[in-house]
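pinning this so it doesn't scroll away 📌
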Amino acid sequence: MAISHNTLAFTFGMLGNVISFLVFLAPISTFYRIYKKKSTEGFQSLPYLVALFSSVLWLYYALLKKDAFLLLTINSFGCVIEIIYIILFIIYASRDARNITFKLFMAMNVSSFALIVLVTQFAVHGPLRVQVLGWICVSIAVSVFAAPLSIVAQVVRTKSVEFMPFNLSFTLTLSAVMWFGYGLFLKDICIALPNVLGFALGLLQMLLYGIYRKGDMKVTKETKLPLEPLRNVVVENPLGTGEVFPVEENQQGKKIKEKREEKEKEKSEEPNDCAV
């Protein structure tokens, strides 16, 4: 007996919920570090504000669409967890970082969302309302792919996968497949379309990892100091939510780079002794 589209949509949606649930929980290590040091260090609140904005939009879309229950569940959780992250960030952020966070929150999560609600409630009606909101969600989801694309560009430029761990790229690809399947069998192009780009980006990252991992840092067995500086890496959840993952910098590579820069600086400052 053939499996119905509703059953397939439910299966892909459930798997997508599980993977996205883990993605939403991934920044816990970041905030444990922030709590331990009582400082947000070099981390920024923007990815979490964008993630909250995207989750709220998809939640609103799921409520209007009415037949996307699994989209409703994961984004409800996403809204809650992102609010918790933002509150923790505000508690431990400096005054300047806190002020920037409040301004971004009011501009994006309050004003922009309120504008979208007003437009979709009063300017468009009937089935067109869901379509307009769906394409707004798609445009937001596609726009925030700029962050992982910048990581891809850095990998090609430096020929190093230090800041593009394989497990994060694999998670991106797997999540994209699940949500694409959910959108496909639900016959919703607004859910399926962003995940085509997410799948392509995930494959590209894994391909680059395979190409450059051998030429990457040759790790020496040295003991790492606790709480080494971290590099922010943004990984795009195909539903449009960007999550930040802390990745430890390679300290040996960093020291070599600093020494090389010092030598080049000294060489450029050397006087020219050639007689005229």
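📌 and the second one:
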Amino acid sequence: HVFFSSLFPHFSLGMGSPTRVHLPALRLFSPHPLYMMKLGRVRNIVVVAGAGISTASGIPDFRTPGTGLYANLAKYDIPYPVAILNINYFSDNPHPFFSLAKELYPGHHRPNYVHYFIRMLHQKGLLLRMYTQNIDGLEKLCGIPDDKLVEAHGSFATAACHLCYTPYPAEEAKQAIMNGNVPICTFCAGAVKPNVVVFGEDLPEKYFQHAEDFPKADLLMIMGKSLTSCLILKVFLLCGRSSPSPAW
């Protein structure tokens, strides 16, 4: 087991007085990244995060048997589990997605020690970029600045028509969804959706704007990920031969 706070023994995570935080064991590769961090030889860290970092905040992940999102979709009356996150099914019937969106909208949960640890990396000048697949907004809420953050699956902060992509006021879309209504595009009458990425949609443009991050990084931290998604595979393709040392 590793005490990350031993790297910065006098630096608070922002959750009260400085304390050691006990995190799960990491798989380390030679040379050991945490040892290199202590020596000051790691200066550019890229963090890739998945749903697992938010479970401590009370947000379920996708695949955990019994508690994951995919295991609890029967109440949405959909023909197959991922239909609720498929843009083609959304076009035919947006109501299941909006029922789920009510539960996923930011504001019900708080960041946990993992989010604050990543913020600490930024405050120490070590965070080159954080790539998150999460749409819970906890990274921004804990203080990770926008220029250091790539929300690879979008966010609820903006909304647009899913057909013509005309922007729509995000707060109006939220109010309609929370009231059980479907926000409608004023241009083409298509259903408006928060700009979170579902199956069948492209990743946000910002995801492709920092390809130089991975060759530049000397440490790649993977958190809360099983490495089964296409996003992570693309990340490693971007790393290429000059891949940084990984730790997860």
